[in-house]
Amino acid sequence: MGIPHFLVIPYPVQGHVNPLMQLSEALAKHGCKITFLNTEFNHKRANSCGGGLDSLKEQGLKFVTLPDGLDPEDDRSDHHKVLVSIKTNMPALLPKLIQDINALDVENNITCIVVTMNMGWALQVGHKLGIEGAVLWTASATSLATCYCIPRLIDDGIIDSEGIPTKKQEVQLSPNMPKMVGADFPWGGLGKIFFPYIVKEMKTLELGEWWLCNTTSDLEPGALATSPRFLPIGPLMESDTNKSSFWEEDTTCLDWLDQQPPQSVVYVSFGSLATVEPNQFKELALGLDLLNRPFLWVVRPSNDNNKVNHAYSDEFHGCKGKIVNWAPQRKILDHPAIACFISHCGWNSTIEGVCSGIPFLCCPFFSDQFVNRSYICDVWKVGLKLDKDENGLILKGEIRKKVDQLLENEDIKARSLKLKELSLKNSVKGGQSSKNLEKFINWAK
Ligand SMILES: O=c1ccn([C@@H]2O[C@H](COP(=O)(O)OP(=O)(O)O[C@H]3O[C@H](CO)[C@@H](O)[C@H](O)[C@H]3O)[C@@H](O)[C@H]2O)c(=O)[nH]1
User: Fold this and answer.
1) Which of 14, 128, 307, 312 to pair with 219, CA 20 to 30 A apart?
2) What gap in Å lies between CA 341 and CA 372, rounded to an integer?
3) What's the complex ipTM?
């Protein structure tokens, strides 16, 4: 048995790169070899944002790149375009890259390919070359279980062949899982073309011997029981920094937080993909003004300046707050000045908030974010929902009301701290997840 050598390949979005980077760091600490494959575009981007790629090289991680097939100026927020281009261009280039990596390290050839969703094609390439594969599922185990159960949902007549629920009803995929309605299915809000795509991708992901999940058996016991392939190895928190940020982190917000009273600041961030429409942006700004307490708001620069108008209304003062383009989120959530997290409920943000013991105010945008909200509000009971009005807007008054309700609720605060303790007990640094990680490493030897 030699040293396992993992070739890890994330789909090029922040929400996939970050957890795979955390997993890579954990594997490297266990003595494994890691070759991290980025698209050329993302590698340049992460390097130019002054991230920590160099410190990872010191830990023994190697970086390699392949072109995604798009022009540098192409809009990479168009995921259909990115997916088609990646699948058209990268599979043909991967065998030669693997050959080159192996030629440089004849003692330790690649033993396993680890991919995130959308990169299942690399498992197919590996399969043909006789290399084992695994998946790191970057969203909740519940969303993976739901995608895995698509054939059953179709057979049972719960959804049609296009993924559309046949009637209004609640579905429970297995005991200990929350009941879901059609809007909670992870393909919700992604557009019609993505459902057949997910069905196809799930078949490819079956080439992965393990489906590693950034979760624990305390957080999602029912979902993890749906298939023996599921292996919970979360919460992935090897490091408190995201070393491959696509935007430059504004670290001045940490100094600013140092000046704020304990548990006073409302942190607002909607991850790396969600787009806040101009009228919602205005309500949010005015709602934050109404709070009469400090806030830290991440307003990501738009990928396409014509698409979103982030103009601040004249009525917005923002004097109690700080607005940044991109924040060192893990450090922010751990800062004693933070009181709560207004979040889109992306799975990474959900896990990060849980591990910091921060109560949530939830406003999901699409996909798995709705069921993540159910976990936060209904299962773990560590947050509240922000309700929309009849026009689909979260109004400024709703924001103020729910922040006040949340921060007055001592039960939610106590449960958040308890959940933090429970989750940390399981991290890859100790507990069941660390045993699972060792099991995975031993399998890959
Ligand atoms: O200012 C910021 C804001 C975010 N982050 C980080 O960016 C990541 C964001 O990930 P996530 O919260 O999961 O949001 P998305 O980027 O929207 O993630 C996509 O991928 C996730 C995992 O598959 C899904 O759960 C989401 O629905 C999908 O939108 C997290 O690690 C954050 O720490 C920062 O470092 N700084």
Assistant:
1) 14
2) 14
3) 1.00
